[in-house]
């Protein structure tokens, strides 16, 4: 197993280099650059040329790529054109906020969706199943910007139960548990929006995978030998049904860090989502590269984790 | 706080306003129908102050201002967005400031002289101004600040403020550290500093308003300007407030500087809290935020109904326009441009889009500027005259309803940008109005950054639309001069006019404001006649200020940060 993981990790290096070249070229091919985004009567063509020189934007793609690689080797991932600060610092100041929110939503939807999925499957075509299927469809089709505003209207403005937006109270100096409480209070509404959106998918996955498993011969055997229904479902069926679901969990690792652009924007959650969008608009290549490389790395790691957990939950799979 | 400036453009701001280009915002306007009028600031007074929510009443020593997220470039020579400039103006002081009419007034400099030839500026610094650490502000600090902008590795947005300083090139080009100082920056004595320019320019005074950095704190070796960036989040100046806490994307917290040289600020803590157009009304009406900009007329209406806000509405210092590529034979003909102007119901568009809160623009100057004039052609909607002008220009209407010249149909490809309500409202009106003249308009929507490259760098377009946010000085040469008619320059339409060049030069070298006014009046008449752009619209800014806040009087050249030490929180019955 250890050998397998080491091999996979080493394989990531060439893949990441390939990805970096690909992303770099794609961004460079987009029309305009960080300097052409500055349109200002106080910025003459001359000044723009100078800025381009300073940022190496006037050089061929390969040379620019070389500069980028050199920045990576120096650590800090280069300097963001827009923020004038090291990319690592920019990413660091936003990504954890996104992570907390996404992680909470991920855990919540996992806790809710698996039991609901299992119950829907075991009671297929029952009222319970229909109610949650409809609920899932609503959740998946509800636009988050609309649902978010609706929640703000109901719970923040009318009932005054939760704050309208933000992550902490303005000017708050809370620390420790008080800070945690404050953040949870602010997180409630965006958490509902995000969870409702992702709940449906996971729930349906669990349901269909469970349905498939309970039709298998060995489940019938288990029942035939007189095991109680609970043992059949939760001990024999569930474990097998979860195998495909585990893959989905592994794959959602990059999602935990990539931020939810729309939800974060509506609730003014200081996450990385809106920052990414802005980096595209301002053609901030170093920042874009930084974020995308990080996500690429997380995707690869997520796949690896999925494969390893696969082996852990399914004894038939042997990793070499 | 949603200002019309789009976040992803390099926006310069200094003691009020600098110029930049932006998309016309889709959320402007207020509920009042009065048309704009020069220097008219409309104030809707709070009707029910007693409705002020308890949360706001309980917040006795904290002012909360809504903002768009600043970037964290808290340094006056680096700040790129309006919001970073707000932060800087609370922490730093510049040599000069401006008054409500847009005239320069003393700040750190008690007074200044401009030499006969207009090339030498001497500033006399007030004695006894202290930085936050207690050290005195002297001419050395001013020299340091401006020398930093000249640094060979400087990559911020202020270069144009020092480009005309004598010795700039020598200092800036020298990477071996042989040239130790900029010739044009001279410390006469600790309280006197002199700047020498290579050419006289009336608006140059505005280059000296940027906040002053304490040398002893920021000092760095030439070329090693990275030091300034490392201190972005630990700014120190001589301003009324100090930075206490910054949470990127969430808030900036300030604490008062009790030793402020203009007097101790009355409010202990100021919080700039990030809000957005979706939730600004909720934040304001629930009492969470004291000051914020509101866009759409419906939103202003809701704030008005809340009853405890004073709403300031004033024309923003900007205009929206359509640019035609004047290198295109069809648009070289002035009659065609005028026909397009007469043939477009701009008023109809503005009424529909701004709901009575915008005004037709006829010249590239804001109605709030001292250089504004009414005595120009209003280009009222007149399709008959438009048809006549097109006939004269040789564009003949054929039986299919379209105009042709030399066998070519009159089709205009219009490049514009996505995601804007302004554009979405404009397209059908242009298509319909010009369609009636016999001109087919084919809109092509694209991402804004792509449009900018096509228009400014490649200059491959027939027609586009955008907006300019204007500077406090009315000099138009940054946009319309021949020198800007180069790839990457601002004169993307390629308007070159001898008369205009002459007037702009006169305007730049004339220091008497009355005379300058006359010159710009003439220039605006010329621009109105020649139509380098098809001018469209002016819009309004609306700022809601809670009735518990006294001393904040926003107007076109004045933000809430202005004279912040005098702002106070009062008890409301």
TrEMBL record, chain A:
Q: Where is the ABC transmembrane type-1 domain?
A: 95-306
Q: What is its main location?
A: membrane
The family annotation for this protein states:
Belongs to the binding-protein-dependent transport system permease family.
Q: Where in the cell is it found?
A: Cell membrane
A Pfam family of this chain: BPD_transp_1
Which branch of life, at top level? Bacteria
Instruction: Name the residues that span the membrane.
Output: 12-30, 99-119, 131-156, 187-205, 241-267, 287-313
- What protein does this entry describe? Oligopeptide transport system permease protein OppB (TC 3.A.1.5.1)
**A GO CC term assigned to this protein in UniProt:** plasma membrane
Q: Which UniProt keywords apply?
A: Cell membrane, Membrane, Transmembrane, Transmembrane helix, Transport
Tell me the organism: Caloramator australicus RC3
Q: How does it sit in the membrane?
A: Multi-pass membrane protein
Gene Ontology BP annotations: transmembrane transport
**Cited PANTHER family:** DIPEPTIDE TRANSPORT SYSTEM PERMEASE PROTEIN DPPB-RELATED
TrEMBL record, chain B:
Question: Where in or outside the cell is it found?
Answer: Cell membrane
Enumerate the InterPro entries for this protein.
Peptide/Ni-bd, SBP_5, SBP_5_CS, SBP_5_dom
Any stretches that span the bilayer, and where are they?
none
Which UniProt keywords are given for this protein, alphabetically ordered? Signal
What's its membrane topology? Answer: Lipid-anchor
Which Gene Ontology terms of cellular component type are present? Answer: ATP-binding cassette (ABC) transporter complex; periplasmic space
* UniProt-listed Pfam families: SBP_bac_5
Q: Entry's Gene3D superfamilies? A: Dipeptide-binding Protein, Domain 1, Dipeptide-binding Protein, Domain 3, Periplasmic binding protein-like II
Question: SUPFAM superfamilies in the record, alphabetically?
Answer: Periplasmic binding protein-like II (SSF53850)
User: GO biological process annotations for this chain's record?
Assistant: peptide transport
Quick one: signal sequence residues? 1-22
PROSITE patterns per the record? Answer: PROKAR_LIPOPROTEIN, SBP_BACTERIAL_5
Record domain Solute-binding protein family: where: 104-480
Q: Is Signal tagged as a keyword?
A: yes
The UniProt entry, under PANTHER family, shows: OLIGOPEPTIDE-BINDING PROTEIN OPPA (PTHR30290:SF81), PERIPLASMIC BINDING COMPONENT OF ABC TRANSPORTER (PTHR30290)
Per the similarity annotation, which family is this? Belongs to the bacterial solute-binding protein 5 family.
Q: What is this protein called?
A: Oligopeptide ABC transporter, periplasmic oligopeptide-binding protein OppA (TC 3.A.1.5.1)
Please give the organism: Caloramator australicus RC3
């Amino acid at each position: 197993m250890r050998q397998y993981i080491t091999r996979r990790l080493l394989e990531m290096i060439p893949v990441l280099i390939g990805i970096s070249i690909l992303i770099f070229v794609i961004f460079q091919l987009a029309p305009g650059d960080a300097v052409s985004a500055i349109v200002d009567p106080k910025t003459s063509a001359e000044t723009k040329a100078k800025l381009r020189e300073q940022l190496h934007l006037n050089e061929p793609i390969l040379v620019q790529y070389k500069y980028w690689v050199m920045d990576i080797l120096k650590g800090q991932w280069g300097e963001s054109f827009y923020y004038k600060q090291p990319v690592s610092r920019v990413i660091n100041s936003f990504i954890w906020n996104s992570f907390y929110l996404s992680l909470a939503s991920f855990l919540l939807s996992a806790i809710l969706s698996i039991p609901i999925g299992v119950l829907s499957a075991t009671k297929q075509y029952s009222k319970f199943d229909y109610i949650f299927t409809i609920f899932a469809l609503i959740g998946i089709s509800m636009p988050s910007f609309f649902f978010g505003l609706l929640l703000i209207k109901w719970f923040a403005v009318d009932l005054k139960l939760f704050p309208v937006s933000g992550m902490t109270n303005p000017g708050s100096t809370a620390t420790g548990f008080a800070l945690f409480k404050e953040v949870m209070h602010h997180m409630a509404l965006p958490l509902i929006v995000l969870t409702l959106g992702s709940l449906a998918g996971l729930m349906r996955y669990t349901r269909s995978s469970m349905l498939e498993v309970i039709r298998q011969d060995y489940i019938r055997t288990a029942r035939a030998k007189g095991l109680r229904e609970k043992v059949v479902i939760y001990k024999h069926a569930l474990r097998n049904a979860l195998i495909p679901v585990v893959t989905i969990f592994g794959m959602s690792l990059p999602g935990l860090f990539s931020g939810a652009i729309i939800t974060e924007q509506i609730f003014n959650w200081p996450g990385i989502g809106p920052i990414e969008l802005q980096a595209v608009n301002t053609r901030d290549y170093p920042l874009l590269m930084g974020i995308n490389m990080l996500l690429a790395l997380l995707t690869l790691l997520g796949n690896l984790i999925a494969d390893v957990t696969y082996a852990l939950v399914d004894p038939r799979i042997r990793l070499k | 706080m949603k200002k019309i400036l789009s976040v992803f453009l390099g926006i310069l701001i200094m003691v009020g306003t600098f110029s930049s280009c932006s998309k016309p915002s889709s959320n402007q306007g207020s509920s009042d129908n009065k048309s704009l009028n020069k220097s008219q600031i409309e104030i809707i007074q709070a009707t029910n102050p007693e409705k002020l929510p308890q949360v706001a009443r309980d917040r006795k020593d904290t002012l909360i201002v809504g903002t768009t997220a600043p970037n964290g470039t808290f340094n006056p020579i680096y700040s790129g967005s309006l919001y970073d400039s707000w932060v800087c103006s609370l922490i730093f002081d510049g040599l000069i400031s401006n008054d409500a009419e847009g005239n320069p007034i003393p700040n750190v400099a008690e007074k200044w002289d401009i030499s006969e030839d207009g090339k030498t500026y001497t500033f006399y610094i007030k004695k006894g101004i202290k930085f936050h650490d207690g050290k005195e502000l002297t001419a050395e600090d001013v020299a340091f600040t401006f020398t930093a902008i000249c640094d060979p590795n400087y990559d911020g947005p202020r270069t144009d403020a020092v480009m005309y300083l004598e010795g700039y090139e020598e200092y800036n080009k020298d990477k071996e550290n042989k040239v130790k100082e900029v010739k044009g920056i001279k410390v006469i004595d600790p309280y006197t500093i002199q700047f020498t320019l290579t050419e006289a320019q009336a608006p140059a005074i505005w280059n000296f308003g940027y906040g002053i950095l304490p040398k002893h704190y920021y000092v760095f070796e030439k070329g090693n300007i990275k030091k300034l960036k490392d201190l972005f989040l630990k700014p120190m100046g001589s301003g009324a407030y100090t930075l206490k806490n910054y949470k990127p994307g969430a808030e900036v917290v300030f604490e008062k500087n009790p030793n402020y040289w203009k007097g101790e600020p009355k409010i202990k803590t100021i919080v700039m809290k990030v809000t957005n157009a979706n939730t600004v009304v909720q934040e304001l009406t629930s009492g969470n935020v004291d000051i914020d900009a509101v866009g759409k007329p419906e939103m202003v209406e809701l704030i008005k109904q809340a009853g405890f806000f004073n709403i300031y509405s004033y024309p923003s210092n900007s205009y929206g326009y359509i640019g035609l590529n004047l290198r295109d034979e069809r648009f070289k003909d002035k009659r065609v441009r005028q026909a397009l102007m007469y043939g477009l119901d701009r008023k109809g568009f503005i009424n529909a889009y701004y709901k009575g809160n915008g005004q037709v623009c006829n010249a590239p100057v804001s109605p709030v500027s001292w250089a504004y004039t009414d005595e120009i052609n209003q280009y009222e909607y007149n399709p008959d005259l438009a048809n006549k002008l097109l006939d004269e220009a040789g564009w003949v209407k054929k039986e299919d309803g379209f105009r042709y010249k030399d066998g070519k149909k009159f089709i205009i490809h219009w490049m514009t940008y996505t995601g804007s309500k302004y554009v979405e409202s404009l397209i059908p009106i242009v298509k319909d109005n010009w369609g009636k003249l016999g001109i087919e308009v084919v809109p092509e929507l694209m991402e804004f950054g792509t449009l900018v490259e096509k228009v400014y760098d490649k200059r491959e377009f027939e027609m586009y639309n955008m907006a300019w946010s204007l500077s406090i000085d009315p000099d138009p040469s940054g946009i319309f001069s021949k020198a800007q008619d180069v790839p990457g320059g601002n004169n993307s339409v390629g308007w070159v006019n001898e008369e205009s060049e002459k007037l702009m030069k006169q305007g730049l070298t004339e220091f008497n404001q009355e005379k300058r006014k006359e010159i710009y009046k003439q220039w605006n008449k010329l621009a109105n006649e020649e139509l380098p752009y098809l001018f469209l619209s002016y819009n309004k800014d609306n700022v809601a200020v809670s009735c518990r806040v006294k001393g904040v009087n926003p107007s076109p050249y004045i933000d809430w940060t202005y004279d912040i030490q005098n702002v106070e929180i009062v008890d409301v019955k």
